[in-house]
Specification:
Helix content: 25-40%
Number of strands: 28
Structural class: alpha/beta
Length: 922
């Protein structure tokens, strides 16, 4: 007869010290199993349940029982000497029992590793198929999943460890008490979960990742102090504290509240039968929207990928949201994830998605903004699970639990930077939680063209796994080459099991649907567009670094180009620069170039501004140059101010690449430094973007001025921002435009494919090809294994040898600084005079207002700028426990006794924060 479960074996002690009794391991295992069952019913999407069940070749009912059982086994490894000795006061004398004698090796071993070591042999006792080779064993696969519940999969077991773990590593507990109790706990859980039979098949990687994510999530919920204390009290106030069936019933009863209280419920939307149902305010849809709305529903019978290629302003965002609804509904994947290239564009999209969710949700859906500074954007939100009323309906803002680390993608709707999704393709800890969140959504990736070869390779691996897990995807681009389109679509098909390569020829404007089930590819005909226009592109040869007094200088040319604006006294122009230094110099020059009543208002926008200044500037630009919209009030009295209202004087916006993507702004004329053709077309998309009555006489039609530097390409001060080959080919291609006119959309795909075609004929072209291949190779070394081959060992999914490769963008800015001003005695201040706002060096972790205020003042820079820095830049020691602040360095700008700020000097460079120009490096 099997011995009963020994309740003296503790599982939770922290937070229970005042009760004088620990929480037994078996109680925590039962709790986790019951919560996993509730998550299966209430949180997992139908698509996720299908992937898990099909992965192990069982029915969905059987799969649910297996998930509950395995979730319950996750902490089986706590039944070992190493763990139980961590808190001897919690064991109620158990350690004095000779049956629980520890091994002679008293070195520590992680309990999750013990779960991995001991579970397979026990599962074999339940009839799980065994195999002499661990990587062929279903029992070992389950053991490795259990061992991954703290975010990383441990290395596969040897054949000897698989069959006799106690002999191979006595630290797991080799005396009778440990061995018997692991079996007793396993059999107790097995019975409480319905005695599920072993799975029929060895599961592919996608099913394993989702199962691990579900187990981790159930464990997190069952480990919350409030849950444990409540179940602990109930157990101590029942007639039989060791009636595990009754304990399971209590846990099952409260599991729903635990799940819904954390906002973990599958999204439910209002019925939508057509594009017009989703967007009733679009009375005259773009041809792209109309065609997608008419034809896509008839093609979609399950998951797939939709690629939308169209000029800016053709309604791609609404098209994507409608396609996401069609795909998600057909796939049983009702969540929504939208990912964009930059924080600025993500913030802008977040506001649109919140409005979208608010209109269409049938029940409140939590919406989560995801990037490194997202909490600043959410500063008006409360920290508990509250509803924010914007109109007659409400949208649920993600509560405190969903804002925790590794949890953001679990929200029903998530809007983040591209990195947020791309990290799932890297072997980072807890990437199973990214996959659990992503696979419950239709994933929309905007500006799919906006990444280098390394980023594209990461996107390909991401798409392979999304195809493998049958996750619907929508890709958007205004300037995507046929080669890249083929690579992205082929990656998704490959992941879905279709290995025959395809060649994609995107229509422009148009869309393509890739069916994940059949692999069939359907491409629309080239569609008409209401945005068809003739863009006049004027090229100007300039001496890039010459002084403004030189008539051929870049600055003098910009001034002449924009002179008609000041003469007429109206209009709004955009100047796009390739570097922050050029943007700052251009803005300073233009502020002084004119005088008088028609002197233009010059607004600067770039990435080296404090977060709060950059966000305020972005909102100001949307107000000035967004799509014209009158002020209006809702029935509930909520007031929305007018948008797209030009100031009474001329406006010149000087910006860097941050203005290229996803910002819905409209200018009368665009001036741009030379850039690769795809980016020039993106910038041109900001010219005459919207119908606007009363265009100035000096800019009646869409026109763009491109500044071509003389001599070396790129100019020395541009660094390596763009390659010589792409700049040269773009320059040469622009000269072939008939009469300098680019017909949009007819000419776009040809121009893009012409410039980006592989060039083996020149040294610059060959260098580009070599560099791109090297970047793809680095990405291949960094990413998780492709799912196109069986993944029998899960260990490579969460670790690689060189952790420096765990980045999503090669060469990206990597540190964040906080500009401060130091008084003569060296005390740092937040005010420029260093007189009245000393920097708080000790902060209460709960003082979110202070933390938010400091983070809003930070700037991200290249880590190399502070090479050789002194101790005065060190993070205050009192910030060590503050998540956002602990890695922030100071930029101390000394203030003289007469209150004059001086720049911070490092090497041959000076850094200072200008009120209007942002961070200046000279």
């Amino acid at each position: 007869m099997r011995p009963p479960v020994d309740h003296r074996l503790w599982g939770k002690w922290s937070g229970l010290e005042d009760t004088g009794a620990a929480y037994p391991v078996v109680c925590h295992l039962i709790d986790t199993a019951m919560i996993a069952g509730r998550l299966w019913d209430s949180y997992l999407t139908a698509g996720q349940r299908r992937v898990i069940a099909a992965g192990w070749g069982v029915s969905q009912e059987h799969a649910q029982q297996l998930m509950m059982f395995w979730a319950g086994l996750h902490d089986l490894g706590k039944l070992c000497p190493s763990f139980q000795h961590q808190a001897p006061e919690a064991t109620a004398g158990l350690l004095d029992d000779p049956r629980y004698k520890p091994s002679s090796d008293d070195s520590a071993i992680k309990h999750e590793r013990v779960s991995h070591l001991t579970a397979p042999a026990l599962l074999v006792q339940l009839g799980y198929p065994t195999h002499g080779r661990p990587l062929r064993s279903i029992a070992h696969q389950v053991g490795q999943i259990l061992g991954g519940h703290h975010g990383t999969y441990s290395q596969a077991l040897t054949a000897h460890a698989l069959t006799d773990p106690e002999r191979q590593d006595p630290r797991v507990g080799h005396t009778p008490g440990w061995v018997e109790q692991r079996a007793a706990h396993l059999h107790t859980l097995h019975a409480l979960c319905g005695n599920p039979a072993p799975p029929a098949e060895f599961a592919p990687g996608g099913a394993c990742v989702l199962a691990t994510g579900l187990i981790v999530l159930a464990d997190w919920l069952a480990s919350r102090t409030g849950w444990i204390r409540a179940r602990h009290w109930e157990r101590n106030h029942t007639p039989d504290a060791n009636d595990w069936t009754e304990h399971a019933a209590r846990a099952r009863k409260h599991a729903l509240a635990a799940v819904t209280g954390a906002q973990l419920t599958a999204p439910v939307w209002k019925p939508i039968d057509s594009f017009a149902d989703m967007f009733p305010f679009i009375t005259d849809p773009h041809p792209l929207q109309a065609d997608l709305g008419k034809r896509l529903p008839a093609l979609v019978n399950g998951p797939g990928l939709v690629l939308v290629t169209a000029p800016t302003g053709d309604g791609k965002t609404e098209s994507a949201l409608y396609a996401a609804h069609v795909l998600g509904h057909a796939s049983g994947t009702e969540g929504l994830g939208v990912f964009l290239p930059t924080m600025a564009t993500t913030n802008a999209m977040h506001r649109r998605i919140v409005e979208h969710v608010q209109r269409l949700q049938a029940a409140p859906i939590p919406v989560r903004l995801l990037h490194s500074m997202a909490w600043l954007e959410e500063s008006t939100k409360t920290t508990d699970d509250t509803l924010i009323a914007n109109c007659a309906d409400t949208v649920r803002i993600s509560g405190e639990w969903l804002r925790g680390r590794h949890r953001g993608l679990l929200a029903g709707a998530a809007i983040g930077t591209w990195d947020t999704a791309a990290l799932a393709a890297l072997p980072v800890r807890y990437n199973v939680m990214r996959w659990l969140g992503l696979t419950g959504k239709t994933v929309i990736i905007d500006e799919a063209h906006a990444y280098d070869a390394y980023g594209h390779r990461l996107t390909e691996r991401l798409l392979e796994w999304l195809g493998h897990t049958r996750t619907p995807v929508v890709l958007l681009s205004a300037t995507l080459t046929g080669t890249i389109a083929t690579c992205l679509a082929d990656a998704y098909r490959r992941g879905a099991g279709h290995t025959t390569p395809i060649t994609l020829a995107p229509t422009y404007p148009g869309w393509t649907f890739v069916d994940a089930t059949t692999g069939q590819v359907t491409t629309s005909e080239t569609l008409p567009t209401t945005r068809a226009r003739a863009l006049t592109i004027t090229t100007q040869s300039v001496q890039h670094a010459a002084a403004p007094a030189n008539p051929d200088s870049r600055l003098a040319t910009i001034t002449r180009t924009l002179q008609p604006m000041t003469s007429e006294g109206t209009g709004c122009a955009l100047v796009v620069c390739n570097t922050v230094a050029d943007a700052q110099a251009t803005a300073r020059h233009l502020r002084q170039a004119w005088t008088g009543a028609h002197r233009p208002l010059v607004q600067l926008l770039h990435a080296r501004m404090p977060a709060r200044q950059r966000d305020a500037t972005t909102r100001r630009l949307e107000h000035w140059a967004g799509k014209p919209r009158p002020a209006h009030a809702s029935l509930s009295g909520h007031y929305t101010r007018a948008r797209g209202q030009r100031p009474p004087r001329p406006v010149i916006v000087v910006a860097t690449q941050v203005v290229e993507q996803s910002l819905d702004v409209d200018f009368d004329h665009v001036v741009s430094d030379l850039a690769p053709i795809a980016l020039l077309l993106q910038r041109a998309g900001r010219c005459h973007r919207h119908v606007r009555p009363g265009r100035p006489h000096w800019a009646p039609e869409p026109a763009m001025t491109v500044l071509i530097p003389r001599g070396q390409l790129p100019p020395r001060n541009w660094g390596t921002v763009y390659s010589e080959n792409l700049l040269t080919r773009t320059r040469d291609t622009l000269t072939t435009l008939p009469a300098g006119v680019c017909n949009i959309p007819e000419d776009v795909q040809h121009l893009v494919d012409t410039v980006y075609t592989a060039d083996w004929a020149t040294d610059a072209g060959t260098n580009d090809i070599t560099t791109e291949q090297a970047m793809r190779t680095i990405a291949d070394q960094a990413t998780i294994p492709a799912p196109t081959r069986p993944i029998r060992d899960l260990h490579p999914l969460t670790t690689i040898d060189d952790e420096d490769l765990l980045v999503t963008r090669l060469g990206a800015d990597s540190i964040r600084i906080l500009p401060v001003w130091t008084s003569p005695d060296g005390t740092p201040h937040l005010d420029r005079g260093a007189t009245h706002a000393p920097l708080p060096t000790t902060i209460n972790p709960n003082d979110t207002n202070t933390i938010r205020n400091l983070m809003a003042r930070t700037i991200q820079i290249d880590h190399r700028w502070l090479t050789g820095r002194g101790p005065e830049t060190d993070t205050p020691t009192g910030w060590a426990g503050i998540g956002g602040l602990r890695d922030v360095l100071l930029l101390p700008q000394p203030v003289t006794p007469d209150s004059t700020p001086r720049p911070y000097r490092i090497g041959r460079k000076c850094l200072h924060l200008s009120r209007v120009d942002g961070l200046v490096r000279e």
